[in-house]
Design a protein that fits this description.
Length: 431
């Protein structure tokens, strides 16, 4: 049984971003002299205080959901729910007392949890998942992270900003392998600047107690010693013990619930939304799924529309993208690419954040924006201009025709759009 707000609020998006904000603040304070500020002594961070701040934020927001439920007339039954028929759910509370609920429609939004590597099961002491990291009493001096996906890279950046020595092992060719290869290349460069040791195309073959805590043998033949290990290799779906088999809900091989784009399962009046569908594992698409399911449960005819949904990754620097990666665009379209490095931007210099670039991919024939990929400060905020362009089917010319405020980081989107037509006056002329 969980608190209101699920993974996003209790163990995911919000607590991790609260800690990342603390780590970023510490980084800025360490660089105070670059901004003309002399600190009397070097900044020292207090992990316990950072965690207390995170817990306070989470507590406030969890309480807020309770208030919203009351205000909107939502009845809340804390407990473990199990479907006991097509129109009934049994809720067992913490005192083992049962309440039977009847409903015309049932919406399943049970989410996901960290996946395990069977050979190295998490033990919450030496081998951890991201839930454990959020609650650590003390940060380790060194950590080995398995997986350079979203969670692996976000934690690698945050922990290295907090002076933890980080090693990352990724079985695929690059860090953030799901992103555009240029994004991965830039991220790998930034990880190097943060002194993160990254081993790509590598598997962990064994983890034994020893050295600084554990010693891991890698498929490359190297060994890595670290105090602790973080396993960040994806998610497993919470579909066990929900009564799904009994009412005949079809699951996919990976354990997620099979659904159509209108959030219906194969069983009439039973819907599923969010991570448990096993498609897009994001809190913000889950909210959209929920609206679609409710609409249809009430007799509507809604389907999901993920057009222009951005990916936002809270690494240092941030990463954000929307639409097609270059390989997909090249396969389906005659395409052109425009780029703008942040070091060519006045605001980036004013903020001392010149790492990264914006890459715009467009269709040469129709001029449609196909994809936008950003690495750099505030990427997760500024991506939404590009997301709207893709959602609304705008052209690269239209994206670049807006007069952006100045000086702002998002001007880099306008400049990259201009560069696609070789019209950026703030870049040296290209032949
Ligand atoms: P992920 O799918 O993003 O990355 C897992 C990585 O681990 C992949 O690169 C994969 O190749 C690698 N991997 C898998 N098995 C491995 C092995 N045995 N050895 C080495 N590498 C291995 O999954 P992650 O990072 O656990 O995140 C889970 C989900 O949560 C994702 O779907 C992500 O989108 C979501 N999430 C989103 C955030 C955001 O939107 N900012 C933040 C955190 C999570």
């Amino acid at each position: 049984m969980d608190k209101l707000g699920g993974v996003c609020l209790n163990r995911g998006c919000i607590p991790s971003k609260a800690l990342i904000a603390s780590a970023e603040q510490y980084r800025r304070m360490k660089r105070a002299a670059d901004f003309g500020i002399n600190l009397a002594s070097p900044p020292v961070y207090d992990w316990a205080a950072m965690k207390a701040r995170k817990d306070k934020i989470v507590g406030t927001l969890v309480g807020g959901i309770g208030q919203l439920f009351k205000s909107h007339g939502v009845d809340y039954f804390p407990g473990y729910g199990r479907i006991s028929g097509q129109n009934s759910v049994v809720v067992t509370d913490e005192n083992d007392s049962e309440t039977r609920l009847k409903a015309d429609n049932i919406i399943i939004g049970t989410g996901s949890r960290s996946a395990n590597i069977p050979a190295f099961p998490v033990d919450s002491q030496r081998i951890l998942n991201s839930d454990h990291l959020l609650e650590l009493a003390n940060l380790p001096g060194s950590i080995l992270i398995i997986g350079a996906g979203v969670i692996g890279c976000e934690w690698a950046c945050m922990l290295s900003l907090l002076d933890v020595q980080v090693t990352v092992v990724e079985m695929l060719d690059n860090a953030l392998p799901m992103e555009d290869p240029d994004t991965s290349r830039l991220m790998e460069r930034e990880l190097k600047k943060l002194k993160v040791q990254l081993h790509t195309k590598t598997m962990v073959e064994s983890i034994e107690p020893g050295g600084e805590g554990v010693t891991a043998k890698l498929s490359s033949g190297r060994t890595v010693s670290a105090n602790q290990v973080l396993v960040a290799v994806g998610r497993a779906f919470n579909t066990e013990n929900l009564g799904l088999e009994e009412i005949g809900v079809t699951l996919d091989k990976n354990g997620s619930i099979k659904t159509t784009d209108d959030m219906r399962t194969n069983v009439k009046n039973v819907f599923a939304i969010g991570d448990v569908r096993g498609q897009v594992l994001l809190a913000y698409t889950a909210v959209h799924d929920g609206a679609v399911a409710v609409d249809n449960a009430l007799g509507g005819n809604a389907t999901r529309n993920y057009l222009g949904v951005p990916s936002v990754i809270f690494t240092h620097p941030e990463v954000a993208s929307v639409g097609m990666r270059e390989a997909e665009a090249a396969e389906k379209h005659e395409m052109a690419v425009g780029r703008f490095p942040l070091r060519a931007l006045g605001k980036a210099h004013a903020e001392n954040e010149i790492a990264g670039e914006v890459k715009v991919i467009g269709d040469k024939k129709t001029d449609r924006v196909l994809g936008v990929h950003i690495v750099g400060a505030h990427a997760t905020e500024i991506i939404h201009t590009a997301a709207l362009a893709i959602n609304q089917g705008l052209t690269v010319t239209q994206l670049g025709s807006l007069i952006f405020g100045h000086p702002v980081i998002s001007e880099s989107i306008m400049e990259a759009a201009h560069d696609l037509h070789r019209m950026s006056v703030h870049l040296a002329k290209k032949k």
